[in-house]
Amino acid sequence: MRWSLPNLASRLAASFALWSAAALLAAPTAVAGAANTAAAAAAPWPNGPFVTSDRWMTDKSGNIVTYAGVNWPGHVDVMIPEGLQYQSITSIVSKIKSLGMNAVRLTFAIEMIDQITHKDIPISKAFTDALGQENGMAVLQKVLKNHQGLFDENTTRLQVFDAVAAECAKQQIYVHLDNHVSKAGWCCNPFDGNSWFGDRYFSVDNWKRGVAYMANHGKNWPNLMSIALRNELRGPILSSGKPEPYTWDTWYSRMREGADDVFKANPDLLIFLSGLDSDTNIGPVVNQQPGKPLAGGGGANFSRADFRGYGDDKLVLELHYYDILHGSKPRDCDQVGRELDNAGFSALGNASAGVAEATNRFPVLLTEFGFPQDNSTYTQTIHRCTEQFLADRQAGWTIWPLGGSYYIREDKQDYDEPWGLLTHDWSDWRSPEHIQNGLRPLIKASQAASGGRAPAAPAKDQDQDGGDGKENGGVQRRSASSMGFSIAPLGLWAAMTYGIVALGL
């Protein structure tokens, strides 16, 4: 078809207008668009404080941040981060960074804060108290040799935490603090006195003081972005203390108090709430019905308004998932997805088939999961499917644990940790197979949305594609926006196509 010049010009103008309109529509909604990338590049790392937006954690610019990290224990008997007799802090952090991880869950004991508030002790005493005079001094000398010019015998335990946080900041790794126990030692069982509010070692007042102290001290760490109030709350058995009732009502009352104290001490931090049953269940919070209690027979009704000043944008939920916490191992990924969603991951939206959609939306992180690091265990159904679930949901996580040994654990010195990502001497990966075939792909997949804008929440009964948010296999069907992409470029393509057709080209 032949067009006159005026007719051609008018159609070109119309096509250009449609194209421009589509481009304007696409620009603000494209999660990984050039504007957001430029803004993220211009913002100084870590670009905090972080807040929450629907199911996402976001930085100061509104860009999604997903933790993909590892647990570095510092709560056991010596009460400093493990492994420093074998490798320097710089070397250990470099190992974490080499995988592309961006977060460390750094654990601590309330006992350390109890001692600090009376009279802090140097690491020389911390080692000898835990390991005995001879062995303690021998390990101390190895630590000092690895950290010449940084530590000496009078360095305090908290200064060691400072050094770990500083090196993480240098290598652009976020720090997430976790109150693991009250009395320092290995965790967790229902007989250890650390289980529940009022248990033998679990003084509520000391706990609140401890988490607030660390939150306040962490103001000196530019990369401290979040803190967890308590690890693996569980019902105490044969307690010699005076434990409070093991109920959701008690949980709600005490967690609100702890969160309030942390917020007053450091309002910049995200506050992580763990569930009951060794943090395998946060479902009542996720599925809270308006006007109804968290659990039958109770009176507590979860409301963000009860967390005054921060309930809308500072609360994050966390869960743990281990095969040892289940009576039988899951048969397939369907079952893994259902178990995790029923535990609380449904708060991310688009729950697995057979699981009701959550009434409350939160970021939910799997702050502990793990297994022996060998050539094959990672391929077992529960472990493979857990990592696949996290990848598909682009959920945050920190695997347990980093190191291959402890200064002392359960009275055995230089205890070997077969679950550790690193070898006994913290020098190399214990399972290169899992690192290459499991963790590296998981790190990449779970962070696929990071740096992009948090999309609007999908409808509760439909995903962005108009379906039910489910797929065979129990892993959610990823919509374009939930994966960190925008469907707006389709409009741009449509406009281009219309223009070409209209011109008869």
TrEMBL record:
Family: Belongs to the glycosyl hydrolase 5 (cellulase A) family.
Protein name: Glycoside hydrolase family 5 domain-containing protein
Keywords annotated in UniProt: Glycosidase, Hydrolase, Signal
Compositional bias annotation for Low complexity: 446-459
Basic and acidic residues composition-biased segments: 460-471
Glycoside hydrolase family domain: residues covered: 84-403
InterPro entries: GH (IPR017853), Glyco_hydro_5 (IPR001547)
Region of interest called Disordered, as start-end residue ranges on this chain: 446-478
Signal peptide positions on this chain: 1-34
